[in-house]
Amino acid sequence: MTYRVCFVCTGNICRSPMAESVFRARVAEAGLDGVVEVDSAGTGGWHEGEGADPRTDTVLRKHGYGTGHTARQFDPSWFTRLDLVVALDEGHRRALRRLAPTERDADKVRLLRSYDPAAGDDLDVPDPYYGGSDGFDACLEMVEEASTGLLAAVRGHVEGQAA
């Protein structure tokens, strides 16, 4: 059975494609790429059909991650096929929970940094879009740090399904 994870930010050109790329790499490194499916979307459709922000692609390539993303808008009907919906900030989490057709679907929504014990109470990944390249580097660092805990949680679910 495939475990499906979708990362969501505002426009699906900065944070969520970065998280998708990093987590997809972690899943492959863990040997779970045939069991865990990873994608991303935005709460809005402003950039639908466009590639990732060039600064996102630059920071991903610089750190050895894949690129080649196309933006899309999150569709509430996806909740039925998704196991986990990972929001990049509190605004996304609230928007996704409002879109959820059922309470069970709303419970699938989690904040990415909630998987990073060092994050403390600051669980938002700041939007780097209006800043310089250093914001994209900081975003990647937060995504990488949270991906370790997220992978452990997903592995636990996958192994629990197999039992």
What does this protein structure show overall?
There is one protein chain. The protein is an alpha/beta fold and 163 residues long. The chain contains 5 helices and 4 strands; from the N terminus they run βαβαβααβα. The chain has helices spanning 15-29, 54-62, 90-99, 103-106, 133-162; strands at residues 3-9, 36-42, 84-87, 109-111. Strands 2-1-3-4 form a 4-stranded parallel beta sheet. Helix 1 links the parallel strand 1 and strand 2. It is globular. The termini are close together.
Pattern of helices and strands: EHEHEHHEH
Task: Report the biggest beta sheet as strand number plus sense, adding barrel if it closes.
Answer: 4 strands, parallel
Integer-rounded radius of gyration: 15 Å
Estimate the global geometry from the Cα principal axes: globular
Helix content: 40-55%
Our measurement of the CA-to-CA distance between the termini, rounded to an integer number of angstroms, reads 12 Å
**Mean pLDDT score, rounded?**
96
Total strands? 4
- Specify the oligomeric state: single chain
Report low-confidence residues grouped into runs of 5 or more: none
Helix tally equals: 5
Assign the structural class, choosing from mainly alpha, mainly beta, alpha/beta, alpha+beta, or little secondary structure.
alpha/beta
Beta-strand residue fraction: 5-15%
Strand line-up of the largest beta sheet: 2-1-3-4
Short précis:
This protein has 163 residues and is of the alpha/beta class.
Characteristic terms for this protein:
163 residues, alpha/beta, 5 helices, 13% strand
